[in-house]
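Hi,

Apologies if this is the wrong queue. I'm a grad student, and the batch job for Thioredoxin-like fold domain-containing protein from Granulicella tundricola produced an output file that my downstream script rejects. I'm not sure whether the problem is my script or the file. Here is the sequence I used:
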Amino acid sequence: MLLRKRVVAGLFALALSTPLMHAQFSGQSPRDNFRDTSILRPPAGSKVAIIVFEDLGCPACAKAHPYEQEVQKSTGATLVRYDFPLEGHIWTFDGAVAARYIQDKINPKLADQFRSDVFASQMQISNREDLHAYTDKWLKAHGQNPPFVMDPGGKLAAEVKADYDLGRRLNVEYTPTIVVVTKDHYQVISGTASLNFDPGNLQRATEAAVAQTKSAPAHAAAAKKTSAH
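Support response: The file is valid. Your script probably expects a header line. Output copied below for reference.
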């Protein structure tokens, strides 16, 4: 499943009795500077999620993007993307707003394609004017009429800002920050000063997390049966 998160803490379980444990599913997970890890949870109905904080103008995010999609498809984990537009990237906030417009007003899958295409076209976009021209051309190429005003009430911008605030709450320091999570554990794939994105690490960690969640009920049942004797 591919899931776009647009609201902050309310979409995760807030009444958590124990903190999330920093653990490794596969390989070595680096020390992080995360603060409120209670937000690192799979969404309802999912046991394993790949959580990504990304900036549309970040070259490292563009590099990681297709691998995230591949791992999501091969493992069945939920892919949760958050917009984290860096202040130094002058067009990426507007790019995230454009993606939200396509997602909310047209089609979520088309919005995913827009994000992929923007990542692939980063070298063509230097400022807001470039981004707006690119978006208009892209919409027309996909049979859509560009709106005169994309976000007249500021709702889409507020959604992007909510994602950014969630990243600040977690203490995201680098993009992309990628974390594989279950309801009890998480492993950082990238997002620390000492760790660059490694596609193999993402694949291994996600596969291991999926395997652990599949085996957990059997272990729990065996323990219960043993204690009953």
